[in-house]
Write a structure and sequence with these properties.
NAD(P)-bd_dom_sf; Sc_DH/Rdtase_CS; Rossmann fold; 3-oxoacyl-[acyl-carrier protein] reductase; EC 1.1.1.100; 3-oxoacyl-[acyl-carrier-protein] reductase (NADPH) activity
Amino acid sequence: MARSVLVTGGNRGIGLAIARELARAGDSVAVTYRSGEPPEGFLAVRCDVTSAADVDEAFGKVEAEQGPVEVLVANAGITRDTLLPLMKEDAFTDVIDANLTGAYRVVKRATRGMLRLKRGRVVLISSVVAMLGSAGQTNYAASKAGMIGFARSAARELGSRGITVNVVAPGFVETDMTAALEEAHQEQIRKNIPLGRYASADEVARVVRFLASEDAAYITGAVIPVDGGLGMGH
């Protein structure tokens, strides 16, 4: 039976690949987007995850169209990369608000229906930099590391109600953002990845599909790296 799925930031890159993968698996998939054009083939709801009112309105629209959200993928996020001595405070707080507090907002709202259903799947999209660190990304790394503590605490709270909460931590993925990097920089990155290449967005999406499936019913509080070995040991 098709489940009601919501993927935040599902209009491009990893989020869109996840939405397509879950739709192929037979689920009814809605996506949120903040700007640009919504993707075709999905219920698309404009939503800024830094606004609790936006989040509540988006969930209301999804619930009216396809029922309570049974699978939530918290993928929406931003970067504002700057070296720490030069980083203005709003560059730090804006990234925390969008990435970490945004995840709190959508997961909290999703649990309203999941608790009533006594089942649910929550997957948070973190990053290898949460554990590895990355120069120029103290704000982003802090937000993505915070997701792990948040997810593991939520997993302990919600497990008795049949709700799992897991984290996927991608490394470098073939997206428009990485494609814009200079080739010399890309080559340097690949040298540090044991598998010697970037991931495709579909490779990340397939791990999310597994965590959202019945096959992963006994997995919660886990952090699954999809990084070609870049962050191993962390």
